[in-house]
Structures are given as C-alpha cells and as structure tokens.
C-alpha cells in the first residue's frame, strides 16, 4: 500500500524538486488519475533511440572497413560515446522506471525521490560526456576533410575548447551545488534523510537546465553551418555539391531536438511538485538529443555500407537466348568468384560475346544486353549472337581455348588519371 503523508500546505506546489523532502508530500489533487503511466512510452522511446545510435556506430565502422580505411580519431571518439549513452538510457528505462519514473509521485514507492536523485546524478555525468563526444567527433571529421584550410582549423580548435568547457561546467556545477556533495541524493533517503539544516543546495535545477541548453543550441548551429562554405568551394558539379550539403544538413535533426527540449523547460512543463510525472518529456528529449547526436555524427560516413546493402539486395538478372533464359548473379560472383559458363548459357543457345570490362566504362544499354555493375566500377555484359556473327569467326573460339558454341571472352581495361 502506498504511504501518503498528510499536509495542508500548498506552498511547495511550485518549488524545485530538490527543495522538497520526501516526508512533506502533499495530498492527492482532486480528480488526478493515479493509474496513469508514461512508463511504456519511456521504455520504448529510450530503447529505440539507443538502438539506432548503436547501430549507426556499427554501420560507420563497417563502412570504414568496406573502404579499407583504418579507424581515425573521429571514429574512436564516437565509439567512446556509446558506453555513456548506454548508461544514460538504461538508468532511466531500467532503474528510474522501476522506481516510479513515469507515474504521478503519489503512486510511486517511498524511495522514488531518492531513486530520482540517483538517476539525475547519472544523467549529470553521462549526458555532457555524450554531447562532448559526438560534437568532438564531428569536429575531428571536419578536420580530416578540411585540414588544409587554415581558417577552418582555427574555428575547429575554438569549438573544441568551447565544447569542452561547456561539458565541464554542465557536469561539475550541479554535482557540486550541494554542501556536502552527497546531500544531492541523501536528502531524499526514505530511511535516514538529512535534516534541512545539515546541508545547503544553492542552485535551482530548472534554471540551470534552461541556461545550459542555450550554449548547446548555439554550438549545434555553428557545427551545422561551419563546413558549408568549404563544401561549396570544392571543384565539383553543382548537383554533387548540393547532395553533399544535404547530407551534412541531416545534422539539423539534433538542432530540432535541442529546440524542443528547451521549449519544454522554458514553458515550465518540467516544474512543480509532481516531478516523476512532469519531468518525463524533458528526460525523453534529453535521451533523444544524446542518441540522435550520435546518429548525426555518423550519417555522412554511412554511404559505403548503404550502397553495399542496396547492391546485396538488388536482384540482378542476365537475360539470354530466345527462350528468355535467366541467371541471377550475386555480388559475390561478380566480385571474383568463378563459375562455368554452361551454368549461364543453355546448351541449345548460342552467344557471340561474354564481355567483362573494368574501369567504369559501361556498355551501352539496349535490348540485346544485360549487364551488372560491380562495386568498383566493373561491369559484366552478355550479348546475344546473330547467326552471321557466329559463322564469321569460328577459329577465334579455338584460339582462345574456349571450345565451341560461339563463345568469346574478351577483357577491356581503361586507365584514367
């Protein structure tokens, strides 16, 4: 049975949560449904956001392997963000939810505020680390792309310093707000709480959360626009420039999430006595911001793996002969695995040419060809023969050591500077 503490005072209704002790619970407001719960929403959104973030990091590493490129500083920094994102996400979806987060405070166990303080402490440590990591990863990626531009290097170093100082301030300020430090959570101990005169907490949590979101928003905007002039100055076709710019602008998702989180804080929807309920949406947007930031840091580097996945799933058919015989060629076969030609060509059909070309010069597309584009610009082409062509060069097949059936294998190689 839930233990409710009687009180006739309403003075605490608008106070920050860290100024209210567990023993001073207010009466249940009239008409409040204590069966309401946001816990399924918290668990679902948190797990999905975390999973997408982890998946994006894995795909980023796979993309680097596909390109046969070793992991660089930007890759290692984003990998370092994953453990902190995991701690942030599951401290909320696991421990916090089990202690009443997502329910009205009157329907939570007696130690819910103590658990809430522990979750806040974990968030105060992990959230700034995740944000610093994904922003540093983006800056390291910019350095790798534009390291020959002196002006951009200066901007990158300035932003690295500002992001670090912001993260340090966001981590230390709320942790050190109480004297002694352990009063941050010990004041809510349901068994042996600290007496009001034995500790002092000076900082309003809500005001701090509002103000620390503003520098985050500013750095998000700067990170978004920083590479655009350098990309536009590249010697590339306009269409390709627009495509690259659009890829970088996908990072605007993190900007949108930050704005939404700030709007909840400014409108005061996270204040009041019922903190285990009122703070739910802000917590979800904090988790979304941390995980979406990881995804945005990985998006520009996922093209190789996405291209490979698209090619792996694409059905490639080679049509041959008058009877419409088809043979499906997998990417593994195209990339070097050999197989007998009789598996492709029926015995009762004649072909004039089996052509394999390398270097990206594709054969013209017409009704007499079926071709397959390889991963590195190679192409396989089959062309159906005319009886006249087969009759003109009967000896060439034997010179190539291919036997009969009018099959000719040639190799075309183009070298481009």
From TrEMBL:
<feature type="transmembrane region" description="Helical">
    <location>
        <begin position="154"/>
        <end position="176"/>
    </location>
</feature>
<dbReference type="Pfam" id="PF20684">
    <property type="entry name" value="Fung_rhodopsin"/>
</dbReference>
<keyword id="KW-0472">Membrane</keyword>
<keyword id="KW-1133">Transmembrane helix</keyword>
<dbReference type="GO" id="GO:0016020">
    <property type="term" value="C:membrane"/>
</dbReference>
<feature type="domain" description="Rhodopsin">
    <location>
        <begin position="59"/>
        <end position="307"/>
    </location>
</feature>
<protein>
    <recommendedName>
        <fullName>Rhodopsin domain-containing protein</fullName>
    </recommendedName>
</protein>
<dbReference type="InterPro" id="IPR049326">
    <property type="entry name" value="Rhodopsin_dom_fungi"/>
</dbReference>
<keyword id="KW-0812">Transmembrane</keyword>
<feature type="region of interest" description="Disordered">
    <location>
        <begin position="357"/>
        <end position="404"/>
    </location>
</feature>
<comment type="similarity">
    <text>Belongs to the SAT4 family.</text>
</comment>
<feature type="transmembrane region" description="Helical">
    <location>
        <begin position="42"/>
        <end position="63"/>
    </location>
</feature>
<feature type="transmembrane region" description="Helical">
    <location>
        <begin position="115"/>
        <end position="142"/>
    </location>
</feature>
<feature type="transmembrane region" description="Helical">
    <location>
        <begin position="244"/>
        <end position="262"/>
    </location>
</feature>
<dbReference type="InterPro" id="IPR052337">
    <property type="entry name" value="SAT4-like"/>
</dbReference>
<feature type="transmembrane region" description="Helical">
    <location>
        <begin position="75"/>
        <end position="95"/>
    </location>
</feature>
<feature type="transmembrane region" description="Helical">
    <location>
        <begin position="282"/>
        <end position="306"/>
    </location>
</feature>
<feature type="transmembrane region" description="Helical">
    <location>
        <begin position="213"/>
        <end position="232"/>
    </location>
</feature>
């Amino acid at each position: 049975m839930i233990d409710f503490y009687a009180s006739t005072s309403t003075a605490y209704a608008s106070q920050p949560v860290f100024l209210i002790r567990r023993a001073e619970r207010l009466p249940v407001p009239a008409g409040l449904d204590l069966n309401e719960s946001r816990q399924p929403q918290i668990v679902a959104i948190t797990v999905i956001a975390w999973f997408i973030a982890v998946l994006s990091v894995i795909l980023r590493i796979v993309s680097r392997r596909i390109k046969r490129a070793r992991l660089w500083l930007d890759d290692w920094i984003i990998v370092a963000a994953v453990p902190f994102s995991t701690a942030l996400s599951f401290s909320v979806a696991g421990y916090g939810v089990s202690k009443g987060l997502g329910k009205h405070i009157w329907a939570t166990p007696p130690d819910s505020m103590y658990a809430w303080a522990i979750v806040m402490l974990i968030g105060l440590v992990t959230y700034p680390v995740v944000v610093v990591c994904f922003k540093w990863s983006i800056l390291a990626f910019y350095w790798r792309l534009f390291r020959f531009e002196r002006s951009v290097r200066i901007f990158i170093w300035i932003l690295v310093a500002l992001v670090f100082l912001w993260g340090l301030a966001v981590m230390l300020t709320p942790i050190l707000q109480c004297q002694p430090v352990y009063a941050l959570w010990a004041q809510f101990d349901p068994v042996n709480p600290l007496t009001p005169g034995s500790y002092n907490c000076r900082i309003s949590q809500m005001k701090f959360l509002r103000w620390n979101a503003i520098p985050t928003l500013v750095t998000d905007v700067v990170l978004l626009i920083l590479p655009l002039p350098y990309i536009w100055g590249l010697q590339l076709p306009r269409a390709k420039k627009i495509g690259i710019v659009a890829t970088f602008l996908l990072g605007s998702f993190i900007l949108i999430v930050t704005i939404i989180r700030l709007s909840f804080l400014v409108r005061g929807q996270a204040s009041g006595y019922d903190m285990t309920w009122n703070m739910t949406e802000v917590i979800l947007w904090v988790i979304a911001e941390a995980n979406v930031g990881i995804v945005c840091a990985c998006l520009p580097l996922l093209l190789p793996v996405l291209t490979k996945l698209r090619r792996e799933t694409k059905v490639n058919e080679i049509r041959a002969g008058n009877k419409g015989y088809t043979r499906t060629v997998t990417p593994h076969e195209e990339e070097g695995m050999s197989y007998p030609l009789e598996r492709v060509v029926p015995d009762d059909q004649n072909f004039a040419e089996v052509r394999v070309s390398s270097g990206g010069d594709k054969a013209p597309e017409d009704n007499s060809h079926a071709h397959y584009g390889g991963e590195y610009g190679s192409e396989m082409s089959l062309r159906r023969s005319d009886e006249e062509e087969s009759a003109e060069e009967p000896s060439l097949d034997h010179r190539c050591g291919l036997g009969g059936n009018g099959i000719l294998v040639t190799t075309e190689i183009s070298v481009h500077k």
